[in-house]
Specification:
alpha/beta; Rossmann fold; Biosynthetic Threonine Deaminase, domain 3; 4 domains; four-stranded parallel sheet; 20 helices; globular
Length: 505
Protein backbone atom coordinates (compact mmCIF):
# COMPACT_ATOMS: atom_id res chain seq x y z
CA UNK A 1 0.00 0.00 0.00
CA UNK A 2 1.40 3.36 -1.08
CA UNK A 3 0.68 6.71 0.51
CA UNK A 4 -1.54 7.57 -2.46
CA UNK A 5 -3.48 4.32 -1.91
CA UNK A 6 -4.13 5.25 1.70
CA UNK A 7 -5.13 8.83 0.83
CA UNK A 8 -7.66 7.45 -1.64
CA UNK A 9 -9.01 4.89 0.86
CA UNK A 10 -9.36 7.53 3.56
CA UNK A 11 -11.06 10.02 1.25
CA UNK A 12 -13.49 7.33 0.06
CA UNK A 13 -14.20 5.86 3.53
CA UNK A 14 -17.90 5.63 4.38
CA UNK A 15 -17.61 5.82 8.14
CA UNK A 16 -20.23 8.51 8.58
CA UNK A 17 -23.06 6.03 8.31
CA UNK A 18 -22.26 5.28 11.95
CA UNK A 19 -19.66 7.80 13.13
CA UNK A 20 -19.95 11.52 13.65
CA UNK A 21 -17.40 14.19 12.78
CA UNK A 22 -16.03 14.69 16.28
CA UNK A 23 -15.43 18.28 17.42
CA UNK A 24 -12.03 19.87 17.95
CA UNK A 25 -12.37 21.83 21.19
CA UNK A 26 -10.14 24.25 23.05
CA UNK A 27 -8.93 22.90 26.41
CA UNK A 28 -8.96 26.23 28.22
CA UNK A 29 -7.54 25.07 31.56
CA UNK A 30 -4.68 23.10 30.01
CA UNK A 31 -3.95 26.00 27.67
CA UNK A 32 -3.67 28.39 30.60
CA UNK A 33 -1.51 26.07 32.71
CA UNK A 34 0.90 24.93 30.01
CA UNK A 35 1.42 28.18 28.13
CA UNK A 36 0.53 26.41 24.87
CA UNK A 37 -2.80 26.33 23.03
CA UNK A 38 -4.26 22.82 23.46
CA UNK A 39 -7.07 21.47 21.24
CA UNK A 40 -8.86 18.18 22.00
CA UNK A 41 -10.22 15.93 19.26
CA UNK A 42 -13.25 14.44 21.03
CA UNK A 43 -13.47 10.84 19.81
CA UNK A 44 -14.94 10.02 23.21
CA UNK A 45 -18.18 11.53 21.86
CA UNK A 46 -18.69 8.82 19.21
CA UNK A 47 -21.81 6.59 19.53
CA UNK A 48 -19.77 3.80 21.19
CA UNK A 49 -17.58 6.35 23.04
CA UNK A 50 -14.50 5.43 21.02
CA UNK A 51 -12.93 5.89 17.58
CA UNK A 52 -12.96 2.14 16.95
CA UNK A 53 -16.25 2.05 15.03
CA UNK A 54 -14.62 4.05 12.21
CA UNK A 55 -12.21 1.28 11.25
CA UNK A 56 -14.69 -1.52 11.94
CA UNK A 57 -17.40 -0.03 9.77
CA UNK A 58 -15.03 0.84 6.96
CA UNK A 59 -13.75 -2.74 6.89
CA UNK A 60 -17.24 -4.23 6.85
CA UNK A 61 -18.38 -1.84 4.12
CA UNK A 62 -15.57 -3.01 1.82
CA UNK A 63 -16.28 -6.73 2.19
CA UNK A 64 -18.01 -8.53 -0.70
CA UNK A 65 -21.34 -10.21 0.00
CA UNK A 66 -19.91 -13.74 -0.08
CA UNK A 67 -17.35 -12.79 2.60
CA UNK A 68 -20.00 -11.83 5.13
CA UNK A 69 -22.75 -14.29 4.28
CA UNK A 70 -21.87 -16.46 7.29
CA UNK A 71 -21.04 -13.43 9.45
CA UNK A 72 -18.01 -11.75 10.95
CA UNK A 73 -16.00 -12.38 14.10
CA UNK A 74 -13.53 -10.46 16.21
CA UNK A 75 -11.76 -10.76 19.54
CA UNK A 76 -11.79 -7.82 21.90
CA UNK A 77 -12.26 -6.83 25.51
CA UNK A 78 -13.89 -3.51 24.80
CA UNK A 79 -13.88 -0.77 22.20
CA UNK A 80 -13.20 -2.83 19.07
CA UNK A 81 -15.94 -5.24 20.16
CA UNK A 82 -18.50 -2.45 20.39
CA UNK A 83 -17.35 -0.95 17.09
CA UNK A 84 -17.71 -4.26 15.22
CA UNK A 85 -21.07 -4.99 16.86
CA UNK A 86 -22.53 -1.60 15.87
CA UNK A 87 -21.05 -1.71 12.37
CA UNK A 88 -22.40 -5.24 11.80
CA UNK A 89 -25.83 -4.24 13.07
CA UNK A 90 -26.00 -1.29 10.65
CA UNK A 91 -24.88 -3.53 7.74
CA UNK A 92 -27.22 -6.37 8.69
CA UNK A 93 -24.35 -8.80 9.22
CA UNK A 94 -24.27 -11.40 12.04
CA UNK A 95 -21.39 -10.68 14.41
CA UNK A 96 -19.69 -12.96 16.90
CA UNK A 97 -17.56 -11.22 19.52
CA UNK A 98 -15.13 -13.31 21.58
CA UNK A 99 -14.31 -11.62 24.89
CA UNK A 100 -12.18 -12.77 27.83
CA UNK A 101 -13.96 -14.08 30.93
CA UNK A 102 -12.40 -11.14 32.77
CA UNK A 103 -14.35 -8.57 30.73
CA UNK A 104 -16.49 -6.34 32.99
CA UNK A 105 -20.23 -6.85 32.61
CA UNK A 106 -20.77 -3.26 31.42
CA UNK A 107 -18.78 -4.03 28.25
CA UNK A 108 -20.40 -7.43 27.71
CA UNK A 109 -23.86 -5.92 28.09
CA UNK A 110 -22.99 -3.06 25.70
CA UNK A 111 -21.92 -5.50 22.96
CA UNK A 112 -24.99 -7.69 23.48
CA UNK A 113 -27.26 -4.62 23.33
CA UNK A 114 -25.79 -3.82 19.90
CA UNK A 115 -26.73 -7.27 18.64
CA UNK A 116 -23.39 -9.00 19.00
CA UNK A 117 -23.29 -12.72 19.82
CA UNK A 118 -20.93 -12.70 22.81
CA UNK A 119 -18.67 -15.70 23.40
CA UNK A 120 -16.68 -15.59 26.65
CA UNK A 121 -13.39 -17.48 26.60
CA UNK A 122 -10.04 -17.33 28.39
CA UNK A 123 -8.54 -14.99 30.96
CA UNK A 124 -6.87 -12.58 28.55
CA UNK A 125 -6.99 -11.19 25.03
CA UNK A 126 -4.54 -13.75 23.58
CA UNK A 127 -6.73 -16.65 24.72
CA UNK A 128 -9.86 -14.96 23.40
CA UNK A 129 -8.11 -14.28 20.10
CA UNK A 130 -7.08 -17.92 19.72
CA UNK A 131 -10.69 -19.00 20.27
CA UNK A 132 -11.90 -16.46 17.70
CA UNK A 133 -9.54 -17.89 15.09
CA UNK A 134 -10.81 -21.40 15.85
CA UNK A 135 -14.44 -20.27 15.47
CA UNK A 136 -13.59 -18.44 12.27
CA UNK A 137 -12.30 -21.64 10.72
CA UNK A 138 -15.09 -23.82 12.11
CA UNK A 139 -17.95 -21.56 10.97
CA UNK A 140 -16.50 -19.91 7.86
CA UNK A 141 -16.62 -16.44 9.42
CA UNK A 142 -14.65 -13.37 8.36
CA UNK A 143 -12.20 -12.09 10.97
CA UNK A 144 -12.11 -8.32 11.61
CA UNK A 145 -8.65 -7.37 12.85
CA UNK A 146 -8.56 -4.54 15.42
CA UNK A 147 -5.68 -2.64 13.79
CA UNK A 148 -3.45 -4.42 11.24
CA UNK A 149 -5.68 -4.09 8.19
CA UNK A 150 -5.53 -1.32 5.53
CA UNK A 151 -9.31 -0.83 5.55
CA UNK A 152 -9.35 -0.52 9.34
CA UNK A 153 -6.37 1.85 9.25
CA UNK A 154 -8.09 3.97 6.58
CA UNK A 155 -11.25 4.15 8.70
CA UNK A 156 -9.25 5.50 11.64
CA UNK A 157 -7.45 7.82 9.22
CA UNK A 158 -10.68 9.75 8.65
CA UNK A 159 -9.80 11.51 11.92
CA UNK A 160 -6.77 12.94 10.09
CA UNK A 161 -9.00 14.07 7.23
CA UNK A 162 -11.27 15.89 9.68
CA UNK A 163 -8.29 17.54 11.38
CA UNK A 164 -7.08 18.99 8.08
CA UNK A 165 -10.42 20.78 7.81
CA UNK A 166 -10.75 21.72 11.49
CA UNK A 167 -7.33 22.95 12.61
CA UNK A 168 -5.52 26.09 11.55
CA UNK A 169 -1.97 26.53 10.30
CA UNK A 170 -0.69 27.31 13.79
CA UNK A 171 -0.86 23.68 14.95
CA UNK A 172 2.67 22.31 15.21
CA UNK A 173 2.14 18.82 16.63
CA UNK A 174 -0.57 16.17 16.97
CA UNK A 175 -0.36 13.70 19.88
CA UNK A 176 -1.91 10.28 19.27
CA UNK A 177 -2.30 7.22 21.55
CA UNK A 178 -0.69 4.00 20.33
CA UNK A 179 -1.88 0.46 20.97
CA UNK A 180 -1.56 -1.76 17.92
CA UNK A 181 -0.91 1.29 15.76
CA UNK A 182 -4.03 1.51 13.59
CA UNK A 183 -5.13 4.92 14.87
CA UNK A 184 -1.79 6.68 14.60
CA UNK A 185 -0.96 4.89 11.33
CA UNK A 186 -4.08 6.22 9.62
CA UNK A 187 -3.79 9.73 11.06
CA UNK A 188 -0.05 10.01 10.35
CA UNK A 189 -0.15 8.89 6.72
CA UNK A 190 -2.91 11.40 5.93
CA UNK A 191 -1.57 14.38 7.87
CA UNK A 192 2.00 13.97 6.67
CA UNK A 193 0.72 14.05 3.09
CA UNK A 194 -1.38 17.19 3.62
CA UNK A 195 0.75 18.93 6.26
CA UNK A 196 4.34 17.63 6.07
CA UNK A 197 5.43 20.30 8.57
CA UNK A 198 3.31 18.78 11.34
CA UNK A 199 4.96 16.65 14.00
CA UNK A 200 3.12 13.39 14.65
CA UNK A 201 3.96 12.24 18.18
CA UNK A 202 2.75 8.91 19.50
CA UNK A 203 2.15 8.18 23.18
CA UNK A 204 2.41 4.78 24.88
CA UNK A 205 2.38 3.58 28.50
CA UNK A 206 5.89 2.92 29.79
CA UNK A 207 4.94 -0.68 30.54
CA UNK A 208 3.31 -1.31 27.12
CA UNK A 209 5.62 0.52 24.72
CA UNK A 210 5.49 -2.06 21.92
CA UNK A 211 5.74 0.44 19.04
CA UNK A 212 8.61 2.43 20.55
CA UNK A 213 10.54 -0.78 21.23
CA UNK A 214 9.82 -2.03 17.72
CA UNK A 215 11.00 1.14 15.99
CA UNK A 216 14.15 1.16 18.10
CA UNK A 217 14.77 -2.47 17.11
CA UNK A 218 14.01 -1.92 13.43
CA UNK A 219 11.31 -4.59 13.37
CA UNK A 220 8.19 -5.56 15.35
CA UNK A 221 9.08 -7.09 18.71
CA UNK A 222 7.01 -9.12 21.15
CA UNK A 223 6.93 -7.75 24.68
CA UNK A 224 7.38 -10.25 27.50
CA UNK A 225 4.86 -8.36 29.62
CA UNK A 226 2.40 -5.53 29.07
CA UNK A 227 0.91 -3.25 31.70
CA UNK A 228 -2.79 -3.66 32.24
CA UNK A 229 -3.84 -0.26 33.52
CA UNK A 230 -4.39 1.30 30.07
CA UNK A 231 -6.03 -1.87 28.78
CA UNK A 232 -7.23 -0.22 25.56
CA UNK A 233 -3.64 -0.02 24.27
CA UNK A 234 -2.14 -3.08 25.98
CA UNK A 235 -0.71 -5.14 23.11
CA UNK A 236 2.38 -7.34 23.14
CA UNK A 237 3.02 -6.90 19.42
CA UNK A 238 2.08 -4.15 17.00
CA UNK A 239 0.96 -4.93 13.46
CA UNK A 240 3.33 -5.38 10.54
CA UNK A 241 1.52 -2.77 8.43
CA UNK A 242 1.08 -0.32 11.31
CA UNK A 243 4.77 -0.68 12.15
CA UNK A 244 5.67 0.20 8.57
CA UNK A 245 3.47 3.29 8.61
CA UNK A 246 4.71 4.50 12.00
CA UNK A 247 8.36 4.00 11.08
CA UNK A 248 7.83 6.12 7.96
CA UNK A 249 5.49 8.85 9.23
CA UNK A 250 5.70 9.21 13.04
CA UNK A 251 8.25 11.74 14.31
CA UNK A 252 8.56 10.66 17.94
CA UNK A 253 7.04 8.46 20.64
CA UNK A 254 6.64 9.58 24.25
CA UNK A 255 6.05 7.12 27.09
CA UNK A 256 4.12 7.92 30.29
CA UNK A 257 3.50 6.12 33.58
CA UNK A 258 0.26 5.24 35.34
CA UNK A 259 0.27 8.34 37.54
CA UNK A 260 0.75 10.63 34.55
CA UNK A 261 -2.16 8.91 32.78
CA UNK A 262 -4.40 9.40 35.83
CA UNK A 263 -3.40 13.07 35.97
CA UNK A 264 -4.37 13.30 32.29
CA UNK A 265 -7.81 11.87 33.05
CA UNK A 266 -8.24 14.57 35.69
CA UNK A 267 -7.06 17.27 33.26
CA UNK A 268 -9.63 16.22 30.68
CA UNK A 269 -12.38 16.11 33.28
CA UNK A 270 -11.56 19.63 34.46
CA UNK A 271 -11.79 20.95 30.89
CA UNK A 272 -14.72 18.91 29.58
CA UNK A 273 -16.50 17.39 32.62
CA UNK A 274 -16.12 14.05 30.82
CA UNK A 275 -14.28 11.05 32.20
CA UNK A 276 -12.17 9.18 29.66
CA UNK A 277 -10.63 5.74 29.99
CA UNK A 278 -6.88 5.46 30.68
CA UNK A 279 -6.06 4.96 26.99
CA UNK A 280 -8.16 8.02 26.19
CA UNK A 281 -5.90 10.22 28.34
CA UNK A 282 -2.61 9.03 26.85
CA UNK A 283 -2.29 11.89 24.37
CA UNK A 284 -2.83 14.56 27.05
CA UNK A 285 -0.35 12.87 29.39
CA UNK A 286 2.24 12.59 26.62
CA UNK A 287 1.74 16.20 25.52
CA UNK A 288 2.24 17.44 29.10
CA UNK A 289 5.45 15.41 29.43
CA UNK A 290 6.69 16.70 26.07
CA UNK A 291 6.09 20.32 27.14
CA UNK A 292 7.82 19.76 30.50
CA UNK A 293 10.88 18.14 28.92
CA UNK A 294 11.28 20.52 25.97
CA UNK A 295 10.22 23.76 27.65
CA UNK A 296 8.00 24.52 24.67
CA UNK A 297 5.71 27.55 24.92
CA UNK A 298 3.36 29.57 22.70
CA UNK A 299 2.72 26.67 20.34
CA UNK A 300 -0.52 24.95 19.35
CA UNK A 301 -1.12 21.23 19.86
CA UNK A 302 -3.86 18.73 19.05
CA UNK A 303 -4.46 15.77 21.38
CA UNK A 304 -6.67 12.81 20.45
CA UNK A 305 -9.10 11.77 23.19
CA UNK A 306 -9.66 8.29 21.81
CA UNK A 307 -12.19 6.71 24.20
CA UNK A 308 -14.31 6.93 27.33
CA UNK A 309 -15.25 3.33 28.14
CA UNK A 310 -14.13 3.33 31.75
CA UNK A 311 -15.51 1.19 34.55
CA UNK A 312 -17.02 3.27 37.33
CA UNK A 313 -15.23 1.14 39.95
CA UNK A 314 -11.86 2.29 38.61
CA UNK A 315 -12.47 5.95 39.43
CA UNK A 316 -11.37 5.59 43.06
CA UNK A 317 -8.02 4.22 41.99
CA UNK A 318 -7.64 6.86 39.28
CA UNK A 319 -8.35 9.70 41.72
CA UNK A 320 -5.75 8.36 44.17
CA UNK A 321 -3.06 8.18 41.51
CA UNK A 322 -3.88 11.49 39.82
CA UNK A 323 -2.62 13.58 42.75
CA UNK A 324 0.79 11.89 42.59
CA UNK A 325 0.84 12.19 38.80
CA UNK A 326 0.20 15.92 39.06
CA UNK A 327 2.86 16.17 41.78
CA UNK A 328 0.20 17.47 44.14
CA UNK A 329 1.01 14.80 46.73
CA UNK A 330 4.19 13.26 48.10
CA UNK A 331 4.23 9.89 49.89
CA UNK A 332 6.87 9.47 52.59
CA UNK A 333 8.03 6.80 55.00
CA UNK A 334 9.63 8.61 57.93
CA UNK A 335 11.29 7.45 61.12
CA UNK A 336 10.69 9.62 64.20
CA UNK A 337 11.73 9.12 67.84
CA UNK A 338 9.30 7.10 69.93
CA UNK A 339 8.86 9.75 72.62
CA UNK A 340 6.45 12.42 73.79
CA UNK A 341 6.08 15.37 71.41
CA UNK A 342 7.59 13.69 68.34
CA UNK A 343 4.36 13.79 66.34
CA UNK A 344 3.91 17.49 67.04
CA UNK A 345 7.50 18.34 66.06
CA UNK A 346 7.20 16.35 62.85
CA UNK A 347 3.96 18.11 61.89
CA UNK A 348 5.64 21.43 62.60
CA UNK A 349 8.40 20.40 60.21
CA UNK A 350 5.78 19.83 57.50
CA UNK A 351 4.57 23.40 57.95
CA UNK A 352 1.06 24.40 56.94
CA UNK A 353 0.80 21.77 54.22
CA UNK A 354 -2.28 19.57 54.14
CA UNK A 355 -2.00 15.95 55.29
CA UNK A 356 -3.76 13.44 53.03
CA UNK A 357 -3.10 10.47 55.29
CA UNK A 358 -1.09 9.57 58.37
CA UNK A 359 -0.50 5.94 59.38
CA UNK A 360 1.41 4.81 62.44
CA UNK A 361 1.91 1.67 64.48
CA UNK A 362 4.25 1.14 67.43
CA UNK A 363 7.50 -0.48 66.27
CA UNK A 364 9.94 -0.45 69.20
CA UNK A 365 10.84 1.61 72.23
CA UNK A 366 13.25 3.87 70.32
CA UNK A 367 11.71 4.68 66.95
CA UNK A 368 8.32 5.03 65.29
CA UNK A 369 7.72 4.44 61.60
CA UNK A 370 5.06 6.57 59.99
CA UNK A 371 3.54 6.66 56.52
CA UNK A 372 2.41 10.12 55.54
CA UNK A 373 0.86 11.74 52.46
CA UNK A 374 1.46 15.48 52.12
CA UNK A 375 -0.29 17.91 49.77
CA UNK A 376 1.85 20.06 47.49
CA UNK A 377 0.91 23.35 45.86
CA UNK A 378 4.00 23.98 43.73
CA UNK A 379 4.71 20.56 42.33
CA UNK A 380 8.26 19.30 41.82
CA UNK A 381 9.99 22.32 43.36
CA UNK A 382 8.03 22.04 46.60
CA UNK A 383 8.56 18.26 46.59
CA UNK A 384 12.33 18.73 46.58
CA UNK A 385 12.19 21.50 49.18
CA UNK A 386 10.20 19.30 51.58
CA UNK A 387 12.57 16.34 51.23
CA UNK A 388 15.56 18.62 51.82
CA UNK A 389 13.93 20.22 54.86
CA UNK A 390 13.10 16.93 56.56
CA UNK A 391 16.54 15.49 55.76
CA UNK A 392 18.28 18.57 57.18
CA UNK A 393 16.21 18.23 60.35
CA UNK A 394 17.60 14.73 60.80
CA UNK A 395 14.59 12.61 59.86
CA UNK A 396 15.49 9.30 58.18
CA UNK A 397 13.03 8.94 55.32
CA UNK A 398 12.22 7.23 52.07
CA UNK A 399 10.38 8.99 49.25
CA UNK A 400 7.79 6.44 48.10
CA UNK A 401 5.91 8.66 45.65
CA UNK A 402 7.07 6.57 42.69
CA UNK A 403 6.94 3.18 44.36
CA UNK A 404 4.27 0.98 42.80
CA UNK A 405 3.89 -1.38 45.75
CA UNK A 406 3.33 1.56 48.07
CA UNK A 407 0.62 3.08 45.91
CA UNK A 408 -1.16 -0.21 45.26
CA UNK A 409 -0.90 -1.79 48.71
CA UNK A 410 1.08 -0.19 51.55
CA UNK A 411 -1.03 2.97 51.82
CA UNK A 412 -4.13 0.83 52.30
CA UNK A 413 -2.71 -1.55 54.89
CA UNK A 414 -2.80 -1.33 58.66
CA UNK A 415 -0.90 -3.31 61.24
CA UNK A 416 2.79 -3.47 61.82
CA UNK A 417 5.91 -5.52 61.53
CA UNK A 418 6.18 -9.16 62.52
CA UNK A 419 9.30 -9.25 64.66
CA UNK A 420 9.64 -13.04 64.97
CA UNK A 421 8.71 -13.96 61.42
CA UNK A 422 11.36 -15.96 59.57
CA UNK A 423 12.10 -16.63 55.91
CA UNK A 424 9.49 -14.26 54.51
CA UNK A 425 9.64 -13.18 50.86
CA UNK A 426 7.29 -10.60 49.43
CA UNK A 427 5.68 -10.67 45.97
CA UNK A 428 3.20 -8.61 43.98
CA UNK A 429 0.93 -10.67 41.73
CA UNK A 430 -1.51 -9.85 38.93
CA UNK A 431 -4.27 -12.33 38.17
CA UNK A 432 -7.39 -12.28 35.96
CA UNK A 433 -10.25 -10.55 37.79
CA UNK A 434 -13.31 -12.77 37.39
CA UNK A 435 -15.74 -14.61 39.64
CA UNK A 436 -13.84 -17.03 41.85
CA UNK A 437 -10.45 -15.78 40.67
CA UNK A 438 -9.28 -14.71 44.12
CA UNK A 439 -10.16 -18.11 45.58
CA UNK A 440 -8.41 -19.84 42.68
CA UNK A 441 -5.34 -17.72 43.30
CA UNK A 442 -5.28 -18.56 47.01
CA UNK A 443 -5.61 -22.25 46.26
CA UNK A 444 -2.78 -22.10 43.75
CA UNK A 445 -0.34 -20.07 45.83
CA UNK A 446 -1.01 -21.53 49.26
CA UNK A 447 -0.50 -25.21 48.68
CA UNK A 448 3.20 -25.53 49.41
CA UNK A 449 4.26 -22.67 51.69
CA UNK A 450 2.73 -20.65 54.48
CA UNK A 451 1.20 -17.30 53.52
CA UNK A 452 2.34 -14.78 56.12
CA UNK A 453 0.89 -11.59 54.57
CA UNK A 454 -1.91 -10.95 52.11
CA UNK A 455 -3.45 -7.75 50.73
CA UNK A 456 -5.99 -7.51 47.92
CA UNK A 457 -8.00 -4.51 46.76
CA UNK A 458 -10.43 -4.43 43.86
CA UNK A 459 -9.46 -1.69 41.41
CA UNK A 460 -12.34 -2.17 38.98
CA UNK A 461 -9.94 -3.52 36.39
CA UNK A 462 -9.76 -6.72 34.37
CA UNK A 463 -6.90 -7.86 36.57
CA UNK A 464 -6.63 -8.16 40.35
CA UNK A 465 -3.53 -7.13 42.25
CA UNK A 466 -2.37 -8.79 45.45
CA UNK A 467 0.57 -8.47 47.80
CA UNK A 468 1.66 -11.79 49.30
CA UNK A 469 4.21 -12.70 51.93
CA UNK A 470 5.44 -16.32 51.67
CA UNK A 471 7.62 -18.11 54.21
CA UNK A 472 10.27 -19.93 52.22
CA UNK A 473 13.28 -21.67 53.83
CA UNK A 474 16.56 -20.86 52.09
CA UNK A 475 16.96 -24.40 50.79
CA UNK A 476 13.56 -24.19 49.03
CA UNK A 477 14.20 -20.95 47.10
CA UNK A 478 14.85 -22.66 43.77
CA UNK A 479 11.73 -24.78 44.25
CA UNK A 480 9.70 -21.60 44.78
CA UNK A 481 11.11 -19.99 41.62
CA UNK A 482 10.17 -23.06 39.60
CA UNK A 483 6.71 -23.11 41.15
CA UNK A 484 6.03 -19.44 40.42
CA UNK A 485 7.18 -19.86 36.83
CA UNK A 486 4.77 -22.76 36.30
CA UNK A 487 1.98 -20.89 38.09
CA UNK A 488 1.93 -18.41 35.21
CA UNK A 489 0.82 -15.28 37.06
CA UNK A 490 2.68 -12.05 36.38
CA UNK A 491 4.66 -11.30 39.53
CA UNK A 492 7.31 -8.97 40.96
CA UNK A 493 9.45 -9.65 44.01
CA UNK A 494 9.38 -6.81 46.57
CA UNK A 495 11.46 -8.34 49.37
CA UNK A 496 13.98 -5.49 49.24
CA UNK A 497 11.42 -2.70 48.95
CA UNK A 498 12.12 0.00 51.59
CA UNK A 499 8.42 0.42 52.38
CA UNK A 500 8.19 -3.28 53.17
CA UNK A 501 11.30 -3.12 55.35
CA UNK A 502 10.00 -0.12 57.27
CA UNK A 503 6.35 -1.04 57.78
CA UNK A 504 5.88 -4.78 57.39
CA UNK A 505 9.09 -6.80 57.76
Amino acid sequence: MTVDDYIRLIDEATVYDVACESPLELAANLTERLGNRVLMKREDLQPVFSFKLRGAYNKLSTLPAEAVRAGVICSSAGNHAQGVALAAKRRGIPATIVMPLTTPSIKIDAVAALGGNVVLHGDNYDEAHARAIDLQEERGLTFIHPFDDPAVIAGQGTIGRELVEQMDDNVTAVFVPIGGGGLIGGIAVYLKDKRPDLKIIGVEPEDSAAMKRSIESGEPVVLDHVGIFADGVAVKRVGDETFRLCKAHVDDIVTVDTDQICAGIKDIFEDTRSIVEPAGALAVAGMKKYVAETGTSDEEFVVINCGANVNFDRLRHIAERAAVGEEQEVLLAVQIPEKRGSFRKFCEALGRRGITEFNYRYNDAKNAHIFVGVQLRRGADEHSELIDRLTNLGYPLADLSNDEMTKLHIRHMVGGSAANLKNERLFRFEFPERSGALLDFLKAIGNNWNISLFHYRNHGSDYGRVLVGIQVPDDESSELETYLSKLGYTHFEESDNPAYRMFLA
